[in-house]
Amino acid sequence: MSQISHYPAAPFGDWDGSPAAARAMQLTLAAQVRLQDDFPALRLIAGVDVGFEDGGTVTRAAAVLLDADTLELVGSSLARIPTNMPYVPGLLSFRELPAVLQALAELPAVPDLIFSDGHGIAHPRRLGIAAHLGVVTGLPTIGVAKKLLTGEHDELDLQRGARVALRDKKTGDVIGCVLRSKDKVRPLIISPGNRVSLATAPELVMRYVTRYRLPEPTRLADRLASRREEKAASRRLAALR
DNA sequence: GCGACAG
DNA sequence: ATCTTGTCGC
Hints:
Layout: H1 19-30, E1 44-53, E2 58-67, E3 73-82, H2 92-105, E4 113-117, H3 129-137, E5 141-145, E6 163-167, E7 174-179, E8 188-194, H4 200-207, H5 216-225, H6 228-239
Helix pairs in contact: 2-3
The protein binds 2 DNA strands through residues 49-52, 55-56, 87-90, 92, 95-96, 117-119, 122-124, 128-129, 143, 145-150, 183-184, 189, 225-226, 235, 239.
Family: Belongs to the endonuclease V family.
Keywords: Cytoplasm, DNA damage, DNA repair, Endonuclease, Hydrolase, Magnesium, Metal-binding, Nuclease
Main location: cytoplasm
């Protein structure tokens, strides 16, 4: 049977808006995360990230769709919606997920795997934005974070490909991996979101890392979400004046 | 009580 | 995340 995946407009069910209710909801959703590898042959992969405009009043999500073999850009989309919640460590998905889902819905096709900026299960309640996204869409997801949120790990070698396990400081459970995507750059924190195993997540990330610290899906989404192009261009003109 | 704290 | 110039190191 084929599983119909879609992008719910209201990924929070009957949430009353309170942080306490959000945390309780995370525990319920975290129980639905699947950590076994369960994804089809990769043909189309997506990358999603969020940026803000107008001092933070507007949330801007970007989604890019790439050919999994050639990394050719197949499509992209942008969603801009009013920001409805402040940033609260541990509750990032409640602030960014609505815009992300809207951007994904506007892509020309449903991806076989989604790379999301932020953490997967490497989260206090095991439901970072990548895991939340995976549960509400039913799609395979991987969290690619640039900073640690929770957990501890040993030092890791400085060459590209080096990695060490990230474990829960309290239980010792492995919740992700600290991965050096390029020689001597700050490592990325990789954790499964849904339908991808702890062992496979870093492998897939390295598969899509080219010459930059971030894997292509996330890197391209980041450029669109944060308008790297536009800002750089306007800066050059300002300096030329 | 104190420190930590994705984007 | 965002505001921002030059600068040190590979």
